[in-house]
Amino acid sequence: MTELPDTATMPHAPAANLDQALDIFDPTLAVEPGSDLYIPRNDQQIEKLLFDLKRSRSGLVHAFLCGHRGSGKTTELRRLCQDAEINAKYETVYLTAQNFGSETVHLTHDALLVEIGLALTREEERYRIDAGLKKQFEEWGVQVVKTFLHDEGVRAEVGAKAGYWLAFFKAQLSTRREWKTEEKQILEPKVQDLVALLNLMAQDLKNKTGKQLLVVVDDLEKGESDAHKEMHKRLFQEHYDVLVQPRFSIIYTLPIYFRALPGSRVPNEELYAFSAVHLYERDQKKEDRPALAKEHAGYRLMRAFVDKRLADRTALIDEEVLDELLLIGGGLFRETARAVRDAAYFALLRQGDRIEQRDVRQVFDQIKKEYQPLIRGDSIRILQAVFASDQGWVMNVEPFLQSRAVVEYENGDLWLDLRHVLKPYVRGLKGEDG
Questions:
Q1: For burial by CB atoms within 10 Å, which of 42, 116, 131, 276 has the most?
Q2: Tens of pLDDT, residues 361-398
Q3: How far is CA 132 from the centre of its chain?
C-alpha cells in the first residue's frame, strides 16, 4: 500500500477544556481510521464499494463517490486504503487534488491522468516501474508541451532539462478553455497514448508485485464557483469516457449533485452516493427546530463524534446545547466540528469555561448571515421548493448543495432539507406561518 500523505496533526487526547476544544474540533483536520477518535460511518455505499473491489475478479472497478464536502468521504477513503483485504489484492495509490500543484478549476482529463503517472514514476523504490516506461512518460510530457509551445528557445529548453516540461504543462492548463477545435483534436490522440502508457505501468506493477493497481483520487468535488462547476462538467461529462479507459481500478470523488444531474454520463452502477447523516425523520423537515430522532443510528453517530473528542462532555456542554450544535452541523462532520469550535470560541471570548445557549446562538446567527447574501432572486424560489417538498429532488438546487445551504439525506427515501440555521429565515421570506 502507498503511504497516505501527511495531514494536519489531530490531537490524540480528548479535550479537557474549551481551549483544547478549539484544536480538536478544527474542521480542517483529518482523523486517521486507526485513531481513538475515529468514528466508523458504516455507510452502505462505502461498504458496497469495499465489497465490489474485493469481489472483482478482474480487479477493474471504476467508481465515482459523490457526497457533500465534510461528510466523511476522505476519512472513509483512507480507511479503504488501509483495509487488509484491499491491500492483499491491490497496490493502492491515494491522490488528493489539493496536492496537484495547480488550481483545480483548471484541471483537465489529461492532467488528471498525468498526476497518476507522476505518482507511479516518482515512487521508484515502492512501485519499481520499469525505467523504460518512466522514460516514455517523460518523453510524452515533453512532446505534448512542445506541441503547444511556439517559442523555439523555450521549446529547446523544455527538451533539455529533465522534468522541466511539467511546469509548462501545468501553466498551459489555465488557457485550455481558449483552445480552438484544431488544438483539441491534436491533443486527444496524445491522451490515448498516455492511457496506453499508464496501462503498461499498471501491468508492470502487477508483474512485480502480483497485485492490481487501485488509484484513489480525492477532493475533486471541492469548489463552489462557476469555474469549479465547469471543471466538474469538463471532467465527468465531456471526458467521462477517457477517465474510465485505464485498465486498472480508480475511485474518483464527485460533487454531491451529480447523483441527480440530468444527462449525467456516470452510470448508476458506477456511482456510490454518500449522503449526510440524518438526525431526524423526514416528516420533521418543515419544523424550524426538527425533533431529533435520538433512538436512531444517525443521531448516535453524530453524538459519539462530539463525545469522543471531549474528556468530559457534560462538564463543557449541556445535553440541550449539544443537540442544538448537532442540528446546526446538519449531519456533516466538518460542519458539526466547526459549530462546536466556534461555540467554544464565543464562550472563551466571554471568559466562560463551558458552552452555553448564548454561545450557540452566536454560532447560529453567524452561519445564517454567511448564507443570507446568496438568498435573493430565483434562489428564494428554489429554497422555498426545498422547504415545501416532501421527498425527491428540486430543480436547480445544485449550487446550494455545493455550498451546504441544502443538505441531502437518505433513510429509505432520498430527500433534501435546508440547513437548520436557514429554516426560520426562509420561512419569513415565504410570508407563511407554517
A1: 276
A2: 999 999 999 999 989 889 999 999 998 888 778 888 98
A3: 35
